[in-house]
Amino acid sequence: SHAGQQVAPEALAAHAAWVKGSKEITGLMLMTMESDIQRNLENLGAYEMLQELKTLFAQQAKQELLQTMRELHSCKQEEG
């Protein structure tokens, strides 16, 4: 945009509504989390929070899969 150009009131209203909605979503997301996760993410916006949660739970799922495979392997050794 050029210097001195006015921003349309509709654009300002849409932006304000988006910011308000984003804050509400962030608040709801935080309310549903365990407190230790909440403390680590409370300063992020909704999008960044979602990215962090995806990373966190992908790592957790990977660890659980490895543990299950180890247990399965040890069961097979006991049988054999």
TrEMBL record:
Domain of life: Eukaryota
Protein name, entry field: Zinc finger, CCHC-type
